[in-house]
Amino acid sequence: MRCVIADDHPLFRNALTALLSDSGLATSVAAVADVAALHAHIEAEGAPELLLLDLHMPGTSGFSALGWYTGAYPGNPVVMISANTHPDTVRRAIDLGAAAFLSKSTSTGTIGDCLERVLAGERGLHPELTIATEGTGLGTLDTAEAVGTLTPQQFRVVVMLAEGLLNKQIAWELGVKEATVKAHMTEIFRKLGVHSRTQAVLALGTLNVPEPETLTQPPDSA
Predict the structure, then answer these.
(1) Is the pTM of this model over 0.85?
(2) Residue 133's domain is classified under what CATH number?
(3) Do the beta carbons of residue 163 and residue 58 sit within 8 Å?
(4) Could you tell me the residue range of the domain that residue 88 belongs to?
(5) CA–CA dist 27, 92 (Å, integer)
(6) Closest CA to 146 of 108, 100, 190
(7) By CB distance 3.0 to 4.6 Å, which of 3, 108, 127, 205 could disulfide with 26?
């Protein structure tokens, strides 16, 4: 089983890598620090059979990376991991396609057990966490579904658009011509069902979540 850990905190990535390797849950474990690296890994190696995805990491906007991955690879489970464990955050992650949601302060034993259950086909897991009773709004679900149809390059464009970058700045960041960015914008607007940059930003904003107030320590690898 191939697994990718997408998290921008080296200590946490290393702890999860050790857990997966030592437990025998994965035959191959790769780690990436941002969404661009995740896209590059998938392009080179194919989509992993299990993705451990940090909620707050560079190159994403809230649940947009979750929406993109579950839309592009619906049969490959995603386990969200975050220090932000508010019941509404947990509920939205599950509603948007996460197979499970784990706190970054969860013990290694609980993490290992949860991953085994996910690999066995269980879904909607949130060990030791409270989940909100009110479901995610249809607008958010529709946006996540639309984001799932974006190409990796279109995804990077729309995230940079949400960050307030102009077309020429996006072109410079991606190393492409401004005309190429405009072409991506046209497709992004069509897929999101919007007609302007402002509408696109507002749509993507429905996937946003508050940043966690504090970061927990990495799981104990012992």
Answers:
(1) yes
(2) 3.40.50.2300
(3) no
(4) 1-222
(5) 30
(6) 190
(7) 3
